[in-house]
Amino acid sequence: MKFRLILMVLGWRLAWLAGRDEGFRKQLAHRDVVMQWRTFSGGVARWYHFQPDRVTSRRGLHPSPSVTLNFKDADYAFRTLKASGKNQMAFMEGMQAGDIKVEGDPGHLMWFMTLMKFILPKR
């Protein structure tokens, strides 16, 4: 439930930024990327479509994502996302252990990581 909620809130935040933050919109220029986050079972899944000036988000599995982040289960995904705020190596450790798998173009995942500075609200 917590993982599903984080994914939904992330979608709202990305859409909000696409409409209101000039720096974020510059990052979207010339992009057409579908990033999907899911559990191995596919029981929890959400995708984000990054386009110039817009990000859309839907629950469920996308038929042809550009990149997919697969987590072993929803509880593990929530714990990893929570830990990644303090430990940037949390994702790498999960990938090395086989608990997180990336399918598709990893360059899109690296690009998404450059967006992290916009996602958390400024204090």
TrEMBL record:
Species for this entry: Alloalcanivorax venustensis ISO4
Protein name stated in the entry: SCP2 domain-containing protein
